[in-house]
Amino acid sequence: MNKKVGKQTVRLDSKPKIISTFSVVGPKEGNGPLSEYFDVILEDDLNKEDTYEKAESSILYMAIKESIKKANLSDNDIDYLFAGDLLNQLTSSTFAAKDMDIPFLGLYGACSTMTESLAIAAMILDGGFANHVIAATSSHYSSAERQFRFPLEYGSQKAPTAQWTVTGAGSMVLGTEGNFPYITYTTIGKVKDYGVNDVNNMGEAMAPAAVNTISQHFMDTGRTPDYYDLIVTGDLGIVGKRITKELIMEYGYDISSNYIDCGDEIFNHEKQLTNAGGSGCGCSAVVDCGYIYKNLLSGKLKKVLLISTGALLSSTSCQQGLTIPGIAHAVAIES
Amino acid sequence: MNKKVGKQTVRLDSKPKIISTFSVVGPKEGNGPLSEYFDVILEDDLNKEDTYEKAESSILYMAIKESIKKANLSDNDIDYLFAGDLLNQLTSSTFAAKDMDIPFLGLYGACSTMTESLAIAAMILDGGFANHVIAATSSHYSSAERQFRFPLEYGSQKAPTAQWTVTGAGSMVLGTEGNFPYITYTTIGKVKDYGVNDVNNMGEAMAPAAVNTISQHFMDTGRTPDYYDLIVTGDLGIVGKRITKELIMEYGYDISSNYIDCGDEIFNHEKQLTNAGGSGCGCSAVVDCGYIYKNLLSGKLKKVLLISTGALLSSTSCQQGLTIPGIAHAVAIES
User: Fold this and answer.
1) Which of A31, A71, A92, B294 is the most buried (most CB within 10 A)?
2) From the list A1, A102, A107, which residue is nearest B106 (CB)?
């Protein structure tokens, strides 16, 4: 049976359920406007480890293990762990996975990894290949800064368009049974390159990919923006969100009344000095696992379209003068 | 319908077909014993680009585009491109994908990426989510050396257990129709860490993961080693191959009569001074897309088990004194 709908979307007839989520954030994220929705707020962003990379891996491990516990399951019940992060060679994810007894599939989509993992996990479940799967991802401000930009010790200044990588990890357990929020459609994005090469303005680099995937989702499904209670992009931040809202008008869709961005929501930018807002895989992970999921559970939200967005750069590609391509994947969740 | 077989294996009832493959290798690989099986042998490993990273991306692009052509298809016929490579943030894959009109899902499993992409691609096809998908990966000796070890200009010596990263890219187009070699089972591996931390001996680091996945495949399916004409690990090289052959005896499986390793086959180690053999995502990609696939097409091989193996290290994890976990995924191909 072919489940394709339009060009880039598939329908998940079995409605894979998100049976639990768990989110862990750093102290700064815990001081932001969404603090009440996170499961754990760290007091120290090193989480008792001696490097930021180990700290990131430890919070991803915590998020995954706790999400399994919350679902009343154990490692052995999980058929696949789909996970990824921003660190070179997925260091956080692989070192988290090595202490778990779960088949592991590593993914990389930069900050789009939450919906990338969620979309693949949902398809694998719907296809009958698993009973329970996990989609998880993480990022860490301090490990990302020194890998992509400068060691923190340099005290570099940030451009007004620069974003603040979220310290956080989120994990979702998906299953086939139960009365939980469920996934109805996924729309997988294409890599879009509009020639942006300013590493301090990733919102601008990612916005065209977000617009492309969101409008393709509407075209494929025949839905319109008002179908959803909330359309939630991953981490475009203030700049990328503004571009997305305007640009998608040219495709004939007005999302201005029900559109938010995780990078915009997670911080109080003026008070917390986070410039254009949050970013990193962990940004949409913790907002989706925390704020969005808990509002779906409570019934405050019923239909949500999640679109995590990724800027596909490496420090090598930037140093070689290349542009920053973007990507975005959409997942429709309903309850 | 549940397609799970045993603990880590799934059965693909629709038998996803590998309808075309394409392989591109560098001059050194073209001088090796498998030269007749590769589709393109580069004269210059820069492939007219000005950096090795761009060269790697260009050969991956070539492999994907030519595999599509060989299948008499165009970009628009491909529902998903599953690809990954060794470069930080999957630079080769994302920059290859940005010039294609195909939804992209980036994967990272180090040198296990060929069977990781092939396994997910096969499940997505079997699940009814696509008509055609691509599994592809690449590596490049010169981009890998400078990223993971030392700039080539240093002229560093290599340990006898060190492997030589293959310059190569391979792409497979999978479809639902036609009389082609087809995929019957996939077995997804767990991350295995036996405490090896010698970056010059990745074969030893990966062997336990290979043994674990291969023996799990036999346990799950009830098959024995003699079911297959050939059991093919990804890039364990001479050292890892020897360990695998011995270690799997302890699980009660004797694979000594029908087992080869891509890293062992691709070079003439003594003549070509490649120490413990080939490695890199491109190694199993070009051997599987070239030697294995062409022998399946000709009927010389009928039942093959492919197991690409990955060493999950980053230069950061090594510098922080961490071990090198390994992973391996198996895909059974029959005709």
Assistant:
1) A92
2) A107
Residue with tokens 């949902």: A122
Residue after which a domain boundary falls, among B175, B191, B218: B175
Domain boundary among B175, B196, B217: B175
- Count of CB atoms situated within 10 Å of the CB of A285: 38
Tell me what the mean pLDDT of segment B175-193 comes to: 97
Residue of chain A whose Cα is closest to the Cα of B212: A103
pLDDT at position B59: 98
Question: How many beta-carbon pairs below 8 A join chains A and B?
Answer: 176
Are residues A154 and A30 both part of a single domain?
yes
Domain enclosing residue B215, as ranges = 182-334
Residue A6 within a domain: no
Low-confidence ranges of chain A (pLDDT < 50): none
pLDDT tens-digit series, residues A105-136: 999 999 999 999 999 999 999 999 999 999 99
**Token pair for residue A184?**
């109805």
Interval B11-65: pLDDT, tens? 999 999 999 999 999 999 999 999 999 999 999 999 999 999 999 999 999 999 9
| Structure confidence by residue, pLDDT tens digits, A205-219 | 999 999 999 999 999
Number of folded domains that form chain A: 2
**A4 belongs to a structural domain:** no
Could you tell me whether strands B278-279 and B40-41 are parallel, antiparallel, or unpaired per DSSP bridges? unpaired
Judgement on whether residues B195 and B147 belong to the same structural domain of the protein: no
pTM: 0.98
Which residues on chain B are in Cβ contact (under 8 Å) with A10?
Answer: 129
Q: Cβ distance A107 to A82 under 8 Å?
A: yes
Q: Residue type for A300, please?
A: K
Residues of B in contact with A88 (CB under 8 A): 88-89, 314-316
- A76: tokens are 């052995």
- Three state DSSP letters for A256-269: CCCEEEHHHHCCCH
